[in-house]
Design brief:
single chain; three-stranded parallel beta sheet; 24% helix; globular; disordered N terminus
Length: 749
Amino acid sequence: MQGLVQNQQNQPIGGAPHYKRGEFLNDVREVNDEPQVKILKDIGMRLVEKCDGLPLGVKVIGGLMRQKRIRRTDWQKVLDDSLCEGFVHGTSDDLEEIEREYYDELIERNLIEPDKNYVDQEVCNMHDIVRSFAHNVHGDEALIAHNTEIGNNDKLKSDKFIRLSLANKGLEAHEMEWRSLQTQISLGTLISVGNIKTKPGDSFVSFSSLRTLHLDSLNLDAVAKSLYQLKHLRYLSIHNSNTSRLPENIGLLKFLQYISLSGCLSLAKLPCSIGMLQDLRFLRLDGTNISVVPRDFCGLTSLRKLYGFPADMDCNHCSLEALGPLSQLRELSINFLENVASSSSAIQAKLGEKNHLRYLSLCCTSRLGDDVVLVEEEEGISEKDKWQIEEVFDVICPPLGLENINIEGYFGQRLPRWMMPTAVAPLRSLWILTMDDLVCCTELPSGLSQLPCLELLQITKAPAIKHVGLELLQPNNQVGVAFPRLQELRFGGMVQWEEGEWEEQVKAMPTLEEFTLKMCKLRHLSSLEKFSSVVLLVVFRNTNLERISNLPKLQKLVIVMCPEMKVLEGMPALQRLNLEDYDMETVPRYLQDVNPRHLLLDCSLSLLTSIAAGKSGPEWHKFSHIQQVKAFATDERISRKRYVTYRRDPFRFETNISGSAIAQARNRRKWLTYFQTCPIEDEWLTGYDTRMQKNVCTSVCNAYRHLSRWLDEACLHCREADNIGSPSYQWTEAAVYSACTRIILTRQT
């Protein structure tokens, strides 16, 4: 074995009969990743050269690269690093990359779990047992307290901590004063969520060692003046505060690297000295009322992540000019782009030159309401405004290597030119594309289908798009398939989209797994059969949707408020069906045409009561073939208070709906059956001759009396004919139904 290894070490690739240079790519990924790996071929070949062509070295590096994401940033980092030794270099240039590696490793080891409501694993949750373990590791150096624990905890008064985390919110919140914390003179980290009473004279003077400060829902104004005294502060996060200002001397915090001001709606401007923070790497301004930035903002040349930057015009000066020198940006979001008067002003941002940029968000102020129509105060969008925003977005061309782009509030009639088929080169590394609030856009650019790495495409609130079809499915020239790597597709708020044209000959989306369709007018989803890899389908408030069919690999189907749905078929692999509709009166018949293993149903209380009748009820035959059923309804304003659970084998049926409620529902159905068979609505009109009503009612009831023995007692008209009812009684449907119910319940008792 040693001889074999030695042989490999001394045999360069050029002379190895069984290992060719191109085989390195095969060691990295499987064959179905070939189109994507080819994009990284240039880096791969440079990695091979760095190993001096030795097969064993290439094999080792190939194994290492299999653990990396197929992104240029990850591969480039390995190329620039000390590869053979595998050492990590924690220089100031790559701290964010190292941070991401640690974050990914925590996920891989199941220590934290990604929240599926966020893309790209932006938010994670920690398991309770992991949290408890971390707390124990801290030992006596840290204190974590919640609400009443704060007031009852003597340690807060006596012990000295390095890390302190306090959550003081809700009904059980403990009244706490800022001065009670000032004994903690050794604090390096302070995290406070909830209100703490501050008074004039309170300050940060006691916290001279503080490096991390996170304050949520605290009025900072009383202590803000002393913030400059935190000479060692690296991390400052102020969330959901009504503070109206930051101290003007914040520039004295020379070591500050992180500032987040999210949710501070009363904050309208930044202090001028913020440009002095040469080490600042992170700045979040979204969720504030900041609309301008100081002229010295361009001095923040160490910034890696900047969110909520406001685009603003002041005479001939555009705030985008301040972005020009910020060449180290990795993530950037810009708001209020409708304020930019010309494309020449937008060019000053120099986005195309920011080679490290991986995430870009371009936003205009929304002009659409939640119902996807123009808000009332908008008088329409002029052709001049449409043309101007199109010109601005055309010149904000992103750099090569961009992985995630978000566009919001764009009101141009066409999307930017760099999304067209002839100009998609800047987006060749794009993984995620989300577009929201496209108020005037009439069609989607065909260039999107050319993106070789795109995995998530989301388009929401696009009311002007009426047709989506072949223009979106132009195949990629290299692999002959449209959207070759798309895994998740989301369409929502396309309220005029009524038809989709998909040719069977067009190969598209071979790896698509999740498809979401919300608030569209499509009637059929039967043309998805060529997307045979779809395993999750969500349809939400599609009022015209009637049919879903031919999805052979579909495992989970979610249907929410689609009242016209009539047909489900061609989904043999279906495992879970979630159905939510609080207006439907009966269980849909289409359930009999599919055979999911699990059914989750959220419905009205009246329908759930009917389901609770079990085998004797009218709904049983529609769901009895399903292995496991869980049905819920809201009662007394408590969500899912009432339930029915059913298991087919071994049989089990449970409900917390009372027997009397089920009996009342059964009698109500009997009455409704008669009402539909013997319609006598005219009898319930008031103001007519009562004796004539009696005669008509008696004749009708005699004709149908054989249908129900209790009809002669249930109908008050008939009873009035026998001098039982009052001649002045107001004959309404509610009165008749109420009397019928009382009579039936009396009989049962």
